[in-house]
Amino acid sequence: MPRNGASYHWRSAATVALVVGLWPALAAAAGEPPSSCAVVDIHEIGWERLESLKRAPGGDWWIEIGRELLVCGDGAMLAPAAADRPVRPVEDAVEAGRLWIARGLSGDQLDQMGLEVVAGSGRLALVRLQTGAELVAGAGDPGQDAHQALVAALPGMVVVRQAANRPAAVPQDWNPAVQALVDEIDGDRWFIDVQTMAAFNRYTHSPGILAARDWLVAGFEALPGVTVETPSFMVGGTAAYNVIATLPGSTRPDDWYIVGGHYDSTSESPMSSAPGAEDNASGCAGVLEIARVLAAHPPEGTVLFICYAGEEQGLLGSEDHVADLVASGDAGKVQAMIDLDMIAYTGDADLDCLLETDPFAQFLVDLLADVAADYTALRIETSLWAFGSDHVPYLDQGIPALLTIENDWYDYPYYHTTDDLPYHLSITMGEEVLKMDVAALAVLAGSGTTHVFADGFESGGFTAWSATVPN
Ligand SMILES: [Zn+2]
Question: From the CA of 265, how far away is ligand 1's center (Å)?
């Protein structure tokens, strides 16, 4: 994940007025007493019970955020609907126009901005303005992270959804051909590569990143059928190089699938040390591990394995690749892109992984959540709010793309420090994410002589398939 410009300071009336305008029903009801609200624990409650909570008699509106649901309305309605679930009443009235989704802001930052957490935590939290505080859109502060932002929270929003709380999708049957590929993912082999990569200083302006580039090129070139290119672009006065390894498809060479993750890193004193084991040797070494498995079982579609440079300076490597795709007329060939960024930290025994994309590419979330259930021990959370990593330039170009990221990354104490070292990582966590990703690629790109497509996939393509998945 990169750092740079953020966008909001507090004390502006204009922004708040705009947001109030987005709550027509509630703003119109300004003369009525404000709703009383409560936060219900919906951890793995299941789709049916979640829906019944949202439709409870007396309820006016709700916002869903991961394991918590904010419900507002007649305070009495929650007791029967929530039954055995823990419920936390929200003190004071919740007013229209004063609720926001905070992305990646620390508790201290929220406090300084006059915001308090209502529900959710970590990467995305539902917050509200304290009485007397106002927000202002301000100039970027280079000391803050690009993934930090405030977005107006509206009734009926699903900010984050646990996979266990999704409606049942069209089942992706367990397939022995996919399982065979999944079984070839080798967490120990991957971890050795993470250690090797963490020994390079991969900061964009350090000469060490060129040695890392050469090591990656050699790793991909050793694989059968793979060709490697290193197109360059400039970051400030420094040349940066993407590493792009191509495995041509056996029967559908013009259907391209991209699996990528950045290999550059940073820290608080990056010219002296930037090991970036979790961010993002974990993901980049994962791309290499997936390439080993797929090169041994050539897929029907073409797979591009990409290790991006310049991510920490603002997604520059993925932007450069998308620009090249557009210039060469190949953008339309790309059927899907899977981004691996920070895949191997876990703060606890819960192997939770976040799948993130934009609404138009929700079929990718459905596919990965499905194969995660079939082939891994991961617990999946999902978000349709893409930001902050190399999937974004593809989404901006209309190319379906999805980020796979461990869901404790925001609590990772060594993020962007010289102590982001391999021993903080979990081999199990990394291996499970790679198993999910290789299973998804096997379904998407197909594998050799074995038929691994979902029914309808080959004839109808994504549109037909995703149209059968309930939202
Ligand atoms: Zn990263």
Answer: 7
pTM: predicted TM-score of the whole model, two decimal places:
0.78
Q: Is the dihedral of CA 217, 258, 242, 387 positive or negative?
A: negative
Structure tokens given for 382: 């999902």
**d(CA 115, ligand 1 centre) in Å:** 27
pLDDT digits (tens, 9 = 90+) for 143-199: 445 556 777 888 888 888 888 888 765 556 788 889 989 999 999 999 999 999 999
Helix (H) or strand (E) holding 404: strand 401-406
Compute, in angstroms, the gap from residue 398 CA to the centroid of ligand 1.
22
d(CA 193, CA 200): 11
Concatenated DSSP letters of 102-139: EES--HHHHHHTTEEEEEEETTEEEEEEPTT--EEE--
Measured in angstroms, how far is the CA atom of residue 416 from the centroid of ligand 1?
Answer: 9
- In the reported structure, the alpha carbon of residue 336 is separated from the centroid of ligand 1 by a whole-number distance in angstroms of 20
Measured in angstroms, how far is the CA atom of residue 312 from the centroid of ligand 1? 7
Beta-carbon contacts of residue 425 (< 8 Å; ≥ 6 apart)? 191, 194, 277, 278, 282, 344, 345
